[in-house]
Design goal:
alpha/beta, Arc Repressor Mutant, subunit A, D-Maltodextrin-Binding Protein, domain 2, 12 helices, about 45% helix, elongated
């Protein structure tokens, strides 16, 4: 049983940064040998650190399981805190680097496709003009993968949604807006010549959407059912933007995309256009996702504020 007594009891009993680094690595790898390699120490040295931790907290931090070693409840609790401390120290180092280098910074953003086009891109253009020394990495992926990277500290913040079933306690979500959906097809598609296009006519063609478990696909199918319409033909499931674009350019298939993405494509791609058909489909609001109780660096906070305000 962990005996604290005072808020600084663990530090008074000798808990050190080296202990926390090992615990964070154990939480990430699940193996003592791999954790030792991750922080650049030998396996015997890692074993000694584990023994020291267990003496300090008066409880084991790992136990043997059918798959090797696993963290105990005490080990998981302390390792989770250790990961947060490591991320905070990483962010502190970046803060100091930004200050020392006079506005130079690095920002890591994650976004789902529609907001990447409609919110992140305009903010980046403004940031580039006002702070040309700041470098930005943008990762465009589904929300579940973005949240995984955010929790692992590989992203500063994300623009998307917290997936159902994800333990959201370590994350903060600030809603921005719902995401309207549009249909696109190649120019020359038979539907562009149909006056007064009706939904049932579009359903005669292949629809390209992400997998059946994706939020976009579930939202589309729910809306079609509410309108009393059948499910569309769907022989290709893909979340790849490039494969979707290639498919509709080379066939009579129709793609279902966030309206912001569809507008961007139709404005810059001569072969593709928006179908004149509004089914009233909106995906639930996306928002700004950050780690709970983690302060953004100045450059990251600046971009997050612009994204929230909808800078164009």
């Amino acid at each position: 049983m962990i005996m604290t007594g005072r808020p600084d009891a663990l530090l008074r009993k000798g808990l050190k940064l080296s202990h926390l680094r090992l615990l964070a690595a154990l939480a990430e790898t699940g193996q003592l040998t791999q954790a030792a390699g991750l922080i650049g120490i030998s396996q015997p040295a890692a074993s000694r650190l584990v023994a020291e931790i267990e003496a300090i907290i008066e409880a084991p931090v790992h136990e043997r399981t059918g798959r090797g070693l696993g963290l105990t409840a005490e080990g998981r609790a302390l390792a989770g805190r250790a990961q947060r401390i490591r991320l905070e120290l990483d962010d502190a180092a970046r803060d100091l680097a930004e200050i020392a280098m006079g506005g130079v910074g690095q920002v890591r953003i994650g976004a789902v496709t529609g907001p990447a086009m409609d919110r992140v891109l305009p903010a980046l253009q403004s940031e580039r003009l006002n702070h040309p020394n700041v470098s930005v990495e943008v990762v465009v992926q589904p929300s579940d993968l973005l949240c995984e990277q955010l929790l692992a500290g590989r992203l500063d913040f994300a623009v998307g949604r917290i997936p159902e079933g994800l333990h959201a306690e370590p994350l903060t979500f600030r809603p921005i807006e719902a995401e309207p959906i549009a249909l696109i097809a190649r120019h020359g598609h038979p539907l562009f010549s149909r006056p007064g296009l009706r939904p049932i006519e579009a359903l005669a063609y292949d629809w390209v959407m992400p997998g059946p478990d994706s939020l976009l696909t579930r939202t589309v199918l729910t809306r079609l059912q509410a309108l009393g319409l059948p499910r569309p033909m769907q022989r290709l499931y893909t979340s790849s933007f490039l494969l979707t674009l290639a498919m509709i350019q080379q066939s009579d298939a129709i793609a279902v995309l966030a309206r912001a993405s569809a507008l961007q494509i139709s404005n810059n791609e001569a072969l593709v256009g928006l179908l004149p058909l509004d089914l009233g489909i909106e995906v639930e609001p996306f928002g700004l996702i950050t780690r709970e109780r983690v302060s953004l660096t100045p450059a990251s906070q600046r971009l997050a504020d612009m994204i929230l305000k909808g800078t164009h």
